[in-house]
Amino acid sequence: MVLHVNGTAYELTLDHRTTVLDVLREHLGLTGAKKGCDHGQCGACTVLVDGRRANSCLMLAVAQDGRHITTIEGLAHGERLHPLQEAFVERDALQCGYCTPGQICSAVGVLQEAADGFPSHVTPADAPQGGPVPLTVEEIRERMSGNLCRCGAYPRIVEAVHDVSTDQGVAS
């Protein structure tokens, strides 16, 4: 099978029970995505699959054949950090850092989902359809709720995501 990870194609022969998280960490040496709960409940393993966020601990690698996976290691452009990585540093949106890679990958997905017009549970029913969903603080909290932080850095995480959403014109 072939997985495209951070822009590089990897031809892999794997046990059919191997998860994407285990491929990343054990076969490719990419340790940014963390194994937290291993049940899809904490979000520490969040990566982007074809641009959409996903819990890599729940995904069988064989089912992702040919897909493009982006991890925290693949977000920067050379020495230039991704805008969300910069915002997390500027806002001090981390403490121990264990959840940070998953938080940032999830936030990248949140920005794209909002830009693509996907509503969340808190999006008003009368919101215009087809256009970007404005990212209010409530929207960001709801959309990021699948990523847990034991240290409680949530206020700064929300601020960092809001900063970047403002820069991208999807904030409210």
Automatic annotation (TrEMBL):
Pfam families registered for this protein in UniProt: Fer2 (PF00111), Fer2_2 (PF01799)
Swiss-Prot/TrEMBL keywords: Iron, Metal-binding, Oxidoreductase
Domain 2Fe-2S ferredoxin-type, first and last residues per copy: 1-75
Organism domain of life: Bacteria
Gene3D superfamilies: 3.10.20.30, [2Fe-2S]-binding domain
Signal listed as a keyword: no
Protein name: 2Fe-2S iron-sulfur cluster-binding protein
Annotated source species: Streptomyces bugieae
